[in-house]
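Quarterly update, task 2.4: iron/sulfur cluster-bound model.
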Amino acid sequence: MTTANLLDFDLDGLVVFCERLGEKRFRATQLFRWIHQRGASDFDQMSDLAKSLRAKLKTAAHIQGLPVITQQESADGTIKWLFDVGDGNAVEAVYIPEDDRGTLCVSSQAGCAVGCRFCSTGHQGFSRNLSTGEIVAQLWHAEHFLRARRQHPLQPGEDHRVITNVVMMGMGEPLQNYAALVPALRVMLDDHGYGLSRRRLTVSTSGVVPMMERLSEDCPVALAVSLHAPNDGLRDGLVPLNRKYPIHELLDTCLSYLAHAPRDFITFEYCMLDGVNDQPEHARELLALMQVFRQRAADLGHGVGCKLNLIPFNPFPESGLKRSPGERVQAFAKILLEAGIVTTVRKTRGDDIDAACGQLAGDVQDRTSVDARMARQRQLLQPLQPLQPMQSLDARPSSGSPRA
Ligand code: SF4
């Protein structure tokens, strides 16, 4: 008999499951706490649950995380896990410690169908959506691994959490796996689960406009948007989804989202690609776009409106792209900063373990023919043809999504 994996349920789902077993709501809350706050996977550990309930659970349910294929640790404390999700597929989660926070970057799909030109996950093609349990299992594993490693006795009332922030910026487009994503976000937000605030939980999207609108109603967490280009001609070639949802439509939706967002700004991500989108004229075009967005946001009563995050590209051979030189990134940032747009340049973390999402998983599985996919990419990328000679210049054996 197949039994239910309890990692697949948010609290409401677990209540329904327990009611089917003839149990009251508060039992579901107890169970939920055991799983997520204490990391329990064995019903016999759950000492405050009646023996009769534990017996029922053993026949109807299980708590199953994801097998870890590898765990790599960087000298800077970054940890990257590669999880087995079956059928030769693997996904990654990356923990990034900082002085005042611990951030986990979580994957939502095995592969990705969006196919952004600069992203190694996109180059791997799409395998399948992760289930809610597979998304939650990345946080469940990381949090309880890190907590156990601290090895100090917890005091009553102490904040147990090691992971204070989660970003859905790993492998996959989260909003193309909406049905599994939203219950997973609810587990992360639930005070009986991980108790994250909506400000500390970020969904990053390449711009799936209808699902951004739904997210603003169903579970309005912080939003990051992968922009990467200041005009449609350029963005069409970098983020193919732009052909369906062009920049003006995307920005209109971002403005609507601000009415529900936990912060008064949207973060726009911009991956800096040598000779592609990193010139002063691109910065000025981006500035004009952001100034209009900021003014419209202010007119609607949203203070800051937008922040820009410039991301150093993690090169991988199939992309034919190179990282912008540091001085060009600084010059680009200066144009925006001097005009008052809040702009940061993302620090690279975990370089010694290739901690940009998408790298290890690509080594583990490569289901689709690289040649066929690259031929398709080249057809789609006519606007970038003048840059083709670069492809032969960069043969470094690393790859990665800019969203790590
Ligand atoms: S950047 Fe994100 S949306 Fe684009 S291909 Fe990579 S994982 Fe998919």
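Highlight for this quarter: The CA atoms of residues 18 and 306 lie 43 Å apart.
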